Structure formats: structure tokens, C-alpha cells
Amino acid sequence: MKLSLTFTTSDHAEWRRWLAENGSLEKEVWLVYFKKESDRPSIDYEDSVEEALCYGWVDSLIQKIDDASYARKFTRRTNTQKWSASNLRRMQKLIAEGRMTDAGLAVIDPQILKLTPADLERPDDEDAFEAVRHMLQEYALAWQNFSALAPSHQRRYLGWISSAKQQATRERRVAEAVMYLEKNEPLPLK
Fold first, then answer.
1. Is 39 contained in some domain?
2. Per-residue confidence of the chain (190 residues) as pLDDT tens digits?
3. Domain membership of residue 22 as a residue range
4. Which Pfam families match (predicted)?
5. 3-state SS assignment for residue 66
6. Is the dihedral angle over the CA atoms 154, 157, 162, 167 positive or is it negative?
7. Do the domain assignments include residue 187?
């Protein structure tokens, strides 16, 4: 994967300045992080996400650069209604601290702020996940390899499959997941 625009800093204030100056001009940026064993200073993940949220940006993909560094993709937020529980917690904290900017507040549906993080934990997720698990159990090797995955990797598979709106799409994703699982491969970035 080719990294488009990159930005490297170990200082969250410098990251905040970049967002203030470029947040309305750019659509994405890859923020570079250094691994602890590199002995190079690096911005803290939590600091970087909080500053991005203040300007209406969110993190997504991670791409390895080399053995000492990786980059995380940040983009301007476009969907104002769908937020993770962790980002809702962060936004509520940032608002209380007076750190949110007008740009950050503009991408938040005011109704979302009335929710608690627990409200975003959809109870129907577990039902959807159970249905996907049942589909995967029909493929012995895929199920065996799926069961051996770390819970976070299992959730990634389950979330990707169950987020399909149409049954045909869900079935296509199950078939693709089975292909990866039977080879004991992780789900590629989607």
C-alpha cells in the first residue's frame, strides 16, 4: 500500500497545529509512529487520536513502514451518526475539557452526545455474531482456525461479515472468510 501524505512528530501540540492548518484542506494523512525498541521519540496513540477528534478526524488503517516504524491513516470524518464507544468516550471528555474545535463539533450529530458509550454497544451485534459463527461452523478447518484466533481477530472477521446489509453480501463474505481461514490467514484490511 502506498502512503500518500505523511506527517512525523513526537509532539501532540505539533500534530494539533498540523490539523488546525491542514484539517480543512487535506482529506487524509498518514501519521508516522516509531516503535519503542527504535529509541526514537514518537507521538502517543491516545494523544494522536484525541487531537484528531478535536478537528473532526478519525484514525483507521495501520501500515508498516519498516522494522522501526509504522503509519496510521487519519481522515476527515464524514459520517456524523456512527461512532465507536471508545471515540464517544473520548469526545465527551474532550468537550468537557473545552478542547473540541468548531470543526470537530461540526461532525458530531448532537443526538450522539446524549448517548452513553454503553448505548453504542449494540445488543443485536451478539445475535449477528452468533449467526456468523453458525455459518462458519459448517466448514471444519475454517472453524478450527477461526477458534484459534485471538478474540480481536475473531471480532474483525465477525464484524466484517455481519456488517453486510444484504444476505447475498453476507454469504459472499462468509465464502471469502472461509477461504482465508482454511489457509489460516488473517483477514486482509478491508
1. yes
2. 678 899 999 999 999 999 999 999 999 999 999 998 888 999 999 999 999 999 999 998 888 899 999 999 999 998 777 777 788 889 989 999 999 999 999 998 888 778 776 666 554 556 667 777 777 788 888 888 888 888 778 888 888 888 888 888 888 988 998 999 999 988 886 6
3. 6-118
4. OmdA
5. strand
6. negative
7. no
